[in-house]
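Researcher: I'm preparing a figure for a lab meeting and need a structural model of a single chain. I don't have an experimental structure, so a prediction will have to do for now. The sequence is pasted below. Please return the structure as C-alpha cells so I can convert it later.
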Amino acid sequence: MQPTRTNYSTPSDDVLSVALELSKSSWKIALQDGKRENPAIKTVNAEIPEHRLQQLIDEIERVRSKWALASETRTVVLYEAGQDGFWIARALARLGIEALVCDPASMQVSRHARRAKTDRLDAIKLVNSLRRWLAGERDCMRVIRQPSVEAEAQRHHVRDRGELQKEAMQHRDRIRKLLRTVGCWDSADGDIAGRLAHGELRAYGGAALPLQLRDRLQRECQRLALVEQQFAVIEKELIKQLPAPVQERAAKLQRLKAVGKVGAVRLVLELFWRRFQNRRQVGACVGLVPQPYDSGNSHADQGISKQGNRRVRSLLIEMAWFWLRYQPGSTISRWYAQRIGDGKSKRGKRVAIVAVARRLVIALWRYLEHDVVPDGAALKLQRN
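Model: Understood. Here is the structure written out cell by cell.
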C-alpha cells in the first residue's frame, strides 16, 4: 500500500474517518464515511498492542470492502495524545495510512455530553470531530505536530536528566532529615559519604551515630552516588547528541541573561519544536492562559487552565524567577515589581509569577521566531 498524499482540503465525504479511543486493555474503533447516520463501532482487545494494531488494519480493510468504498477514498485515523505516544501514528504511516494525533484538552464538549462517559461515546465524539476538522472546521480540535523519533528520544534524555536531579535532591533531603532525628544539624551537601565514613557526623552532644542509623545513611549515600554518576554521564552527553537545529535555537536563547544551557535545551525540546501561529497558541499550549468566569453579575478568576505540558509549565515558572533576578530592567520585571508593590501577599506573588511566566514564554517565542529581543532585556557579553 503506497502512502497517500496528505490533502486536508479534501471534502470529508471522500474520506473514511477512523477514530481510536485507547485504553490499557482494549481499543474502541469508530468508522464513518459520511454516508451513514451512525458510525460503525468495533472493539479490539488483543493482549499485545501490536496485535491490536493489526486488528485495526483488518477492520479498516473489512469496512472498506463492505461499504464498497472506491480505491481512491482516503483513510484518516485519529486518536488523542496520551501514554501511547506517537508509535501508532508512525506504524500506520509506514503502511500508507494517514494518522493524526490531537490534543485531548482542545476537544469541544457539549454540556449534555459531559453527563455520560464511555469509550463508545468518546470514540463517536472523536470520529465526528475528525470529519468536521477535515471539512475545514479547524477550531473543533487541535492536531499535534508529530516529532521525529530522534527528537522524541532527545526529549526523554532531557527529562531523564531532570528526574535524576530531582532524585538526588530527594536522597540528600532524606539524609538531612535522618541526621536531624539525632540532633545532627550538619549540611547534607558535598561529600556526605566521606564525612560519614570518617566519623565526622555526630549526634547531639558529640555522641556517635547509632549503628542502625549509620547503616541506613550508608545505603542512602550509595543510592545518591549511583544517581549522581548517571546524572554526570547524561550531562556530558546531552549537548553533544542534540541535532544541529536544536543546538542553534538553544544557543540563541542562551544569549539572553537568565537563560541557562539546560533550561534553553529543555524549552526547545519540550515546547519550541512546535510551530505556533500567534501568542495565544503559545500560552494555551503550556496551560498558562487565565480562565475567567463571567456570567450575569458573577465575575471571578478561575486561575490558569493548566492544560498542556506540565513539565514546560514548571520550567517556565522557574525561569520566571531567574528572569526577575537577572533581568531587573526588562519590561516584564518592571511590570512584576509594579504589580506586587509593597507587602504583597504570598498568594499575590504566586499569581503574579504565573503572569510573568506567560509573558516570558511569549517573549521568548517572538525572540526565536522574529528576532525580537524582549523589551528592556540584556544580552550576555559575547566571549572572543
